[in-house]
Amino acid sequence: MFDCIILGAGLAGCVLAERFASDGKRVLLLEKKEHIGGTCYDFYDKSGILVHKYGPHIFNTDNETVWKYVNRFSDFRIYHHRVLGVIEGKKVPIPFNLESLYQLFPSTYAECIENKLLDKYAMNTKVPIMELQNQDDPDLKYLANYIYEYVFLHYTQKQWGMSPEEVGGTATARIPFYISRDDRYFQNRYQGIPVNGYTDMINHIIANENIHVLLKTDYHKVIELDQLTHTIKFLGLPYNGKVIVTVPLDELFEFCFGHLPYRTLDFKFETFNTEYFQEICTVNYPNNYDFTRITEFKYMTGQVHPQTTIVKEFPKQYDWKDKSQEPYYPIPQEKNTILYNKYRTLLDEFSNVILSGRLADYKYYTMSETITNALGAFDKYCVDNIK
């Protein structure tokens, strides 16, 4: 019998598997996909180029504990991600910053706006455009409206299939103007890519004899949560160990209250007989085209190869009936939070269940946040055991 059964072998599930196994617990890791790592999974394509199956993943964090944790399982190639956005026919740095300003506006007007910004804010400050929209100064209002129109509005409509207002104010609140000439997409202290890829790193995370992995496994056929008795059965027998849930709660409870909505992505991979396709890793297309961005993997991985592979991302609504689709982005609307909380109430009736991860929490997490939450869930388990 296993001391701990984990539903889902994504990043959260694998980190928790490692923590419990290192604590001497016998762990069963169940995964419906044919691979570990969840959306962090990467592999070598037919041309021998290392690609990220579910879109680009750049590890970035200010959390020293998390950085030390991942470095136990892989060396990291230091990589600072940069993104260009196609705006009015020009490719400018994203997030919108002083360099973007000078590339799009006449220099005298750009200088005027820069001086007004620096009168109100310190250098290297990220100012939400909602705050700029509320300023009395017409030039700052114009800047905010320009960024909203050309950088955010149409990109959001493509990404979410709805207007920014329908998505909610929290989405708009995150759009910054970065008062800086630092053109990096992230400003975190630690940034990088595992030298041999994420799959290799995660394989090292779960390389413990106490961890047993079952891929291509429907966990409903292995684990049963009885809502009447609030007990758990494993292969039809009573189970009193820990169950860690990293899978969607609506799926776990067989959609008894309805389906939690997500946005998903279609990926179109293309390989070219040239060393590089574009001038930078990622180019965003906020306005024209059906796709939102193009990513070229060799910039991230540092791989030397005479060919190159890119991926285009096409957002669309998630259809739970289509098993080829992945639920990527929880939709941050109040009605969805209410529905999620109904499922969460069902889970709260089970005393030996731990919840962790993007799907289980119905929240978008970075990789750093995923690991932080997983480590925190394990620490709480240890504290509760002491009590």
TrEMBL record:
Its cofactor is FAD. PANTHER family: UDP-GALACTOPYRANOSE MUTASE. Belongs to the UDP-galactopyranose/dTDP-fucopyranose mutase family. Keywords: FAD, Flavoprotein, Isomerase. It comes from Enterocloster lavalensis. This is UDP-galactopyranose mutase. InterPro entries: GDP_dissociation_inhibitor, UDP-GALP_mutase, UDP-GalPyranose_mutase_C. GO terms for cellular component: cytosol. The keyword Ribosomal protein does not apply. GO terms for biological process: small GTPase-mediated signal transduction. The lineage of its organism: Bacteria, Bacillati, Bacillota, Clostridia, Lachnospirales. Residues 151-364 form the UDP-galactopyranose mutase C-terminal domain. The keyword Isomerase applies. It comes from the Bacteria. Gene3D superfamilies: NAD(P)-binding Rossmann-like Domain. One of its GO terms (molecular function) is flavin adenine dinucleotide binding.
